[in-house]
Amino acid sequence: MEEPVQLKEALISTTAGAISGGIQRMVTSPLDVIKIRFQVQLEPTSSWAMFPSNWSGTSKYTGMFQATKAILREEGLAGFWRGNVPALLMVMPYNAIQFTVQHKLKTFAAGSSKTEDHIRLSPYLSFVSGSLAGCAATVGSYPFDLLRTILASQGEPKVWNRNRVSNSSLFGTEDELSSFQQFLCGLMAGTCAKLVCHPLDVVKKRFQIEGLQRHPRYGTRVEHHAYRNMIHAVRQILQLEGWAGLYKGIVPSTVKAAPATAITFVAYEYTSVWLKSTLT
């Protein structure tokens, strides 16, 4: 009896994770496109950022609202969903893998597949389960993340398409949380996570677009082999762009992370409940 129950729980976690990921991706795609445009721009992205005096070149995007108007004017509404198909292909398996692996790890640690037993796990075990689940999800969905970044970083005209394709207790107990409380928990979790991890996301985006051809009006491109490794990339960004360089796109990223995580949490819970009632 235990094996069919675990199989059912795994199916629910996988399906609910994929659906919730797809929903949040469709809603937050415009903010993600703006964030990526900032992250891959070597020039300053704000007037207050301090950069070395020998920096040359003009900035294509200098603020969130300015970037929004520029994309809308030059690319239309469709520009805000550029790369959305590979993004969906990334986030749906990402969430599916993440929620499934996390559920399996918690089941192993608690010795039970019941949600109430998972809640009793120590914060340390929950942290380890979440971290391993996130690593597994990243590995499984990375090719789509790479394609999404390349497409989302492009403006008009699409230079890459022409040249590259042919060649390459505050809230009570966890089991009593309302939808609004889940939304708040997701909002705070997403915001905190982005603030801590954003510099690594910037470095990842730079590696993903190394050597990518773009129209000159979008500024200096990241040349082939510009960074030897992660540490060298961090040092280069700090030297040429200052600390602000590691936090390029932090505003749209934070604005996006809060509702994205919250939507995922709520959509996952609602989808899980619906699937459990349907499969019962």
Task: Give a written overview of the molecule.
It is a single chain. The chain is an all-alpha fold and 280 residues long. The chain has helices at 2-39, 64-75, 84-110, 115-119, 123-152, 159-163, 179-208, 230-241, 250-279. Helix 1 (2-39) packs antiparallel against helix 9 (250-279) and helix 7 packs across helix 9 (250-279). It is elongated.
Q: Main beta sheet, described?
A: none
Number of helices: 9
Helix-strand category: mainly alpha
Task: Indicate the proportion of strand residues.
Answer: under 5%
Rg measurement, Å: 21 Å
Instruction: Say what oligomer this is.
Output: single chain
Q: What is the overall pLDDT average?
A: 77
- Broad shape: elongated
Please trace the helix and strand order, writing H or E for each element: HHHHHHHHH
Helix percentage: 55-70%
Low-confidence segments, ≥5 residues, pLDDT <50?
162-174
Structure summary, number of beta strands? 0
Cα end-to-end separation: 14 Å
